[in-house]
Amino acid sequence: MKATASSAMAIRTVQRHIIENQRKHHPGATGELSWLLSGIVLATKIISDYVRRAGYIDILGSTGDENVQGEVVQKLDVIANDTILACLGYHDDVGIMVSEEDDEPHIIKELDDRAKYIILFDPLDGSSNIDVNVSIGTIFSVMQRREDGGGGKVMDHILQPGYRQVAAGYVVYGSSTVMSYTTGDGVHMFTLDPSIGVFRLSKENITMPPAGKMYSVNEAYFAQFPKGVQEYLKWAKSDEAGGYALRYIGSLVADFHRTLLRGGVFLYPPTKKAPGGKLRLLYEANPLAFLAEQTGGAAHDGTQRILDKQPTALHERTSLIIGSKAEVDRVLSFWSD
Ligand code: AHM
Ligand code: MG
């Protein structure tokens, strides 16, 4: 009996961590944000369960539809999207939810005082990897609606620069299910313990290695990249660079997770097909940039810091260079349009 109680005490769950962290860094906080994050935790546990069973419950493959961005919608994309909407939509404090999969924002509550949070998310990142048992993930970003009322326009509340995020995180459904989150006081990482269904603390206050000889890019697009990126990639393979490795999973969330732990740089530059870059500013670049900077890393679009970008459209895309500070700076030293 005693042993059971003490081992339960030793389990630091993500919910407990979020509450303790809020008490420590924001003693006057109302607890709304903690409550809201626990909704995200629940949603990702449900998604993780679907992902693990996908091969035998007939939820692999596409729905036959295309999303607003002209991409094929996978059945699991829809399940993940619906799960997040269901787990967060009933929260009193959630005013607007914005998904990469949906054309329009979900207005949960008209801009009333209590519903001050805006959740932006990519329900299942790495869609092309769903059917082949390669890591995929969920990325989320939390903002507060503008205090000045935003002229009463919903879009003015949603289209805020990334530095205004109050929380962000991701979950990777990989060889284990791992979650990282920040509320602006460092980045903390948890692993889902399937035997008891809770995320348990695995690393606190993560520091991204300041440099790392690893680059991550879809190099098949080499001929389409701007000249400066081509020059960087030639340099990375040169004797002068001293032995870089290439790693590219094709799920941003998993490539970022590795970069966070091992160091290096991930880049998705503009291509002829996607001249503004492929990745989405609001659901992918912003939350990961917040996490990167919280761990000592950097995130840039080639012209400016990602978190300073003023979004102009819901599904806006951006080029992205993210990772260890020295490696991001190195790419920028070659960058040209
Ligand atoms: P998705 O959100 O529809 O899955 O698209 C984003 C994904 C990223 O996870 C990944 O970095 C990129 O697209 C891969 O693109 P590509 O196949 O062009 O290399
Ligand atoms: Mg994505």
Low-confidence stretches: none
Ligands bound to this protein structure: 2,5-anhydro-1,6-di-O-phosphono-D-mannitol, magnesium ion
The total of helices stands at 9
Order of adjacent strands in the largest pleated sheet: 4-3-5-6-7-8-9-10
| Whole-number mean pLDDT | 92
- Briefly note the CATH topology name of the largest domain: Fructose-1,6-Bisphosphatase, Chain A, domain 1
CATH superfamily of the largest domain: Fructose-1,6-Bisphosphatase, subunit A, domain 1
Radius of gyration: 20 Å
Considering DSSP H and I runs of 4 or more, what fraction of the residues is helical?
25-40%
- Biggest β-sheet description: 8 strands, mixed
| Backbone structural class | alpha+beta
Explain what you see.
The chain is α+β, with helices and mostly antiparallel strands. It has 2 domains: 202 residues, Fructose-1,6-Bisphosphatase, Chain A, domain 1, CATH 3.30.540.10; 122 residues, D-Maltodextrin-Binding Protein, domain 2. The protein contains 9 helices and 17 strands. It has an 8-stranded mixed beta sheet, with helices on both faces. A 5-stranded mixed beta sheet has the order 12-11-13-17-15, sandwiched between helices. The longest helix is centred in the N-terminal third of the chain and has 22 residues. The protein is globular, with a radius of gyration of 20 Å. The relative contact order is 0.13. Magnesium ion binds next to β5. The site of 2,5-anhydro-1,6-di-O-phosphono-D-mannitol has 12 residues, from β5.
